[in-house]
Design brief:
The complex is a heterodimer of chains A (375) and B (534). Chain A is mainly alpha-helical. Chain A has a single domain, classed as Orthogonal Bundle (ABC transporter involved in vitamin B12 uptake, BtuC). Chain A is 73% helix and 2% strand. In chain A, helix 4 crosses helix 15 (313-332) and helix 5 (118-129) crosses helix 13. Chain A starts with 25 loop residues before the first helix and ends with a helix. In chain B, a hairpin with a 3-residue loop joins strand 13 and strand 14 (302-310). Chain B contains 19 helices and 22 strands. Chain B is globular. Chain B starts with a helix and ends in a 10-residue tail after the last helix. In chain B, the strands form 5 sheets. A 6-stranded mixed beta sheet of chain B has the order 6-9-10-3-11-12, sandwiched between helices. A 6-stranded mixed beta sheet of chain B has the order 18-19-20-15-21-22, sandwiched between helices. Chain B has a 4-stranded antiparallel beta sheet with strand order 2-1-4-5, with helices on one face. Chain B has 534 residues and is α/β, with parallel strands linked by helices. Classes of the chains: A mainly alpha (375), B alpha/beta (534). At the A-B interface, helix 1, helix 11, helix 12 and helix 16 of A face strand 2, helix 11, helix 15 and helix 17 of B.
Chain lengths: 375, 534
């Protein structure tokens, strides 16, 4: 508050305006430029406010706790570094498909929406790209089809929501039902086997000891992070979700952007469809069941605000990995899926509680630190 | 209750050291002291919001709190209302030292707060709102009849027996909602009612009614803390004044009617000016016609409005809330679709939509800063560049360093406080938030600025700064279209004035040819909308 001493009077010559013409006062600009330069030295990869990072620390803690639990219950397995490495890869591979869907979901939620149709879109794209007709175009045709189907269905969602003014919950709920119906109708309720070795190899193969699916997840996460944090698209997403009216009055085309967010989610679903088809070497209308819930839950425990305007890709990724680790933990201990789902529910609640607590205590801590340094 | 002791505790800050403290005569107000604050301190992350506040309120008085935005008024209210707890200092309530752990505790003790943004549930009835949280009930069932009777009785006490207790609050006008807030305070048997800028949402004639109610409340021995930026109101309704600056009490218990304005202003600001409007340029500097609006109409809002703005000209629109001025501005900006008429920039008809208006060089600072203009959780610089971040981007990649530098430049020239552009906008005071909104459009390219109530909730000092900014923009050739419900502001700042009433322009003249009374007559004639329907 020490710099708050007001200038005695507001004289006309003080109000040098920035903006239109080149800066007036060379001294003033030099000072401003200096400050900007020192601030501009932030590393390229670093976020602008550390909040997200702090929140994610809590998730890392949860992950560590899960690993400790695993090590206690199966000390013999965790004693073997070879097994541990393979288990990590197994967890990442397990997380890969939902992870890709979650990246798209994170954008939609930050943008103030929700997409309940992601699982259905994955199924529709998977089924569509494995029809006999599509498979005749080869692997390239299949990938192209899955992605185009994903984007198109996402666009339909987006148009309904932004131009048809449907509530996102309703529009994507309707799409959930309709897309699964279409998938069942196309596949004639049969499982469609993929005969493309290229597609099937995606899930089966490793490069440098790491499964290709994990590379895909990594690529999507990195692309998503850049898109959210370093591009105008990401800034618009935060603005549109944080305060749509302010975004609109600032000249941002809120409707078009909302539409694009659902298309982006659809694109992620298309990619996920190929990954899932490759894993199963087949596709059917019932695949990717309840992925929407997994993706939403992962985004939420990752710190994404359901009301929009705030969220991180890294948090969402951690959320997905935590879920995959729980599944893995239960599998190696030979426990049932039912018990696993109960624990997952508990984890969602616990993670959010922990974050809130941690967030509050952090701001308090911050307050103390700032005051001691400034006064 | 020695008066001199109270005053001795308040020390002038360095900036106004030469102004002597004004001693209030000890017999200014009768009534015992109900509330006494001593050295109250409250800190938030990075901000010392209250830094030693003294306050003494007596039963049956209207105690006015004066201070610029960011002086700590809002924080002080929240401490009294139990929303925040002080870090140190003493709060003495009716002779006992207290700390209110939560708003309920303050309510129970008899302190009711009426916030500027009224905290009513729009879809509940008047009675349900008045008794929200402490309904009359038996066996878990709400006793609606009894509650309605009680509400009617309270409303009668407030002189508004005509408001039906069963009506949805949504259906009431702003003045009616305020009455409901006061009814809620009375339903709690409040002994102290805090009113945060109650007149800001009221039309001119409704303020008189508010004052009548306040006088009746104080006659019953209820103390009122009244916060307003309008000095003339404080003169009319207030008994004593306490002035805050930078979280400190700079003067306590001044007589509201007799303290010279100059003294009050200097305590608030360290300056001795009130409304200082920049000089109009003497020579005719206005340039080519920038904006042409012809026959613009939206049913129920405004009809057949034609106006133009030239480069370097400030055009003011005077009119009451509800006269269609804000709607007109939003329609020109493309945020609402016109039913008839046209909007041209540089002679070309604008396509619908905000985007094309912005591309054509328009910018708008909307009426509601928080809900219409700001991303409160985002840093200042991102709010400043909200409309322009695309211009600093390369191939879709944003340039945070450049944006920060530009925002820093804006912050410097607008004297934004605090200056750190990385802070969330949420932490700024109202006046500084407004600077962020205006600053957004200073970042190049804007040739026509639409300002809707640019100084609402902005204190005297920051106002003068904003006026300078607006005039300086005009001097650079920017056209400004300004809407304000404060007539002196329109007359003092604008070159040309349009008076609107009930959606129509009733007068257009150079500002020099109009005076305040003429405009007020034009604005009010035949439009005395009654507060609440019977």
């Amino acid at each position: 508050m020490s710099d708050a001493t007001p200038t005695p009077t507001a004289t006309p010559e003080r109000s040098q305006l920035p903006a239109q013409s080149p800066p007036v006062d060379p001294v003033e600009t030099a000072v401003a430029g200096d400050k900007a330069a020192s601030r501009g030295r932030l590393s390229w990869w670093r976020g602008d406010n550390g909040d997200g990072v702090k929140r994610n620390l809590g998730l890392v803690g949860v992950l560590a706790a899960l690993i400790v639990v695993g090590a206690i219950t199966k000390p013999d397995l965790y004693g073997d570094p070879n097994w541990v490495w393979n288990n990590i890869l197994a967890i990442l591979q397990l997380a890969s498909v939902v992870g890709v869907v979650t990246v798209g979901m994170t954008f939609v939620i930050i943008g103030g929406g929700i997409d309940l149709s992601v699982g259905a879109i994955v199924a529709l794209a998977g089924v569509w790209c494995t029809t006999v007709a599509t498979q005749s175009y080869g692997a390239g045709g299949m990938i192209f089809t899955a992605i185009v189907v994903g984007i198109c269905v996402g666009l339909v969602n987006g148009v309904l929501i932004s131009y048809g003014r449907l509530v996102p919950f309703i529009a994507t709920l309707a799409m959930l039902v309709a897309a699964r119906g279409l998938a069942a109708s196309i596949s004639n309720k049969q499982t469609q086997v993929s005969s493309s070795t290229f597609i099937n190899d995606i899930a089966a193969r490793k490069v440098l000891g790491i499964p290709i699916l994990v590379y895909i997840l990594g690529a999507v996460v990195v692309a998503g992070w850049i898109l959210l944090n370093r591009t105008t698209f990401g800034r618009r997403t935060i603005a549109v979700g944080g305060n749509p009216e302010a975004a609109r009055l600032a000249g941002i085309n809120v409707r078009r952007h909302t539409m694009l967010l659902y298309a982006l989610s659809g694109l992620c679903c298309g990619i996920a469809a190929i990954m899932l088809t490759s894993q199963a070497t087949s596709a059917q209308a019932a695949m990717a069941n309840l992925y929407e819930l997994d993706a939403i839950a992962a985004a939420i425990i990752g710190g994404t605000l359901l009301s929009g305007g705030r969220g991180t890709i890294v948090g969402s990724l951690l959320g997905v990995i935590i879920f995959a680790t729980i599944t893995n933990l239960f599998a190696i201990n030979g426990l049932s899926i039912e018990a696993q789902n109960m624990v997952k529910g508990g984890i969602i609640v616990a993670a959010v509680l922990v974050q809130q607590f941690q967030f509050k205590s952090f701001t308090r801590l911050l307050a103390r630190n700032r005051l001691t340094t400034t006064t | 209750m020695a008066q001199s002791e109270e005053n001795a505790a308040t020390e002038p800050t360095a900036t106004d050291a030469d102004a002597p403290l004004i001693e209030a005569p000890a017999d200014t107000v009768a009534g015992e002291v109900v509330l006494r604050l001593t050295d109250v301190v409250k800190t938030f992350p990075g901000v010392r919001a209250l830094d030693g506040v003294q306050l003494e309120v007596r039963a049956g008085e209207v105690h006015c709190l004066l201070g610029q935005n960011g002086a700590g008024k809002s924080t002080l209210i929240k401490v009294l209302a139990g929303v925040h707890q002080p870090d140190s200092g003493e709060v003495e309530w009716r002779g006992e030292q207290v700390t209110f752990a939560n708003p309920q505790a303050a309510m129970r003790a008899g302190i009711a707060t009426i916030y500027q943004e009224l905290d009513l549930v729009e879809d509940l009835s008047v009675a349900e709102n008045a008794f929200l949280g402490h309904e009359h009930r038996r066996f878990g069932f709400v006793r609606r009849g009894r509650m309605a009777r009680h509400t009617r009785q309270i409303l009668g006490r407030l002189g508004h027996g005509e408001i039906p207790p069963g009506r949805m609050v949504r259906a009431l006008p702003a003045a009616g909602k305020q009455i409901v807030s006061m009814a809620r305070a009375l339903s709690h048997e409040a002994r102290l009612i805090i009113m945060d800028e109650p007149s800001a949402v009221l039309a001119h004639d409704e303020v008189g009614n508010l004052f009548r109610i306040i006088r009746e409340l104080t006659a019953q021995g209820i103390a009122v803390i009244y916060i307003s930026h309008r000095l003339e109101e404080i003169r009319e309704i207030g008994d004593r004044v306490t002035v805050l600056k930078d979280g400190r009490t700079t003067a306590a218990n001044l007589p509201a009617r007799d303290t010279p304005t100059r003294d009050l202003v200097s305590r608030m600001t360290g300056r001795t000016i009130e409304y200082v409007f920049p000089d109009r340029p003497t020579d005719d500097t206005v340039g080519a016609e920038l904006l042409q609006v012809e026959g613009l109409t939206r049913a129920g809002e405004f009809a057949d409005v034609s106006l133009n703005v030239r480069a370097g000209e400030i055009v003011g629109i005077a009119g009451l809330v509800g006269s269609g001025r804000s709607e007109l501005l939003e329609t020109i900006y493309g945020a609402r679709v016109a039913e008839a008429g046209s909007v041209r920039m540089d002679g070309r008809v604008l396509r619908p939509g905000v985007g094309s208006a912005v591309r054509a060089g328009m910018g708008m600072a909307p009426e509601e800063r928080k809900s219409q203009a700001l991303l409160l959780g985002e840093p200042i610089y991102r709010n400043v560049t909200l409309a322009t971040f695309g211009r600093y981007a390369r191939l879709g990649f944003t340039d945070a360093a450049k944006e920060r530098a530009e925002a820093d430049r804006i912050a410097e020239s607008l004297e934004l406080r605090p200056r750190d552009v990385g802070r969330p906008v949420r932490t700024l005071s109202g006046g500084n938030q407004q600077k962020v909104v205006v600053g957004r459009w200073l970042l190049g390219g804007t040739r026509l600025l639409l300002l809707d109530e640019p100084t609402r909730g902005v204190d005297v000092g920051a106002r003068a700064e904003l006026y300078q900014v607006i005039r300086a923009l005009a001097a650079q050739g920017v056209g400004v279209l300004l809407v304000s419900s404060e007539v002196p502001e329109v007359l003092g700042l604008a070159d040309r004035v349009l008076v609107m009433r009930e959606g129509r322009v009733v007068r257009e003249a150079p500002a020099g040819e109009l005076d305040e009374n003429t405009v007020l007559d034009l604005v009010m004639a035949g439009s005395l909308m009654e507060g609440a329907p019977a």
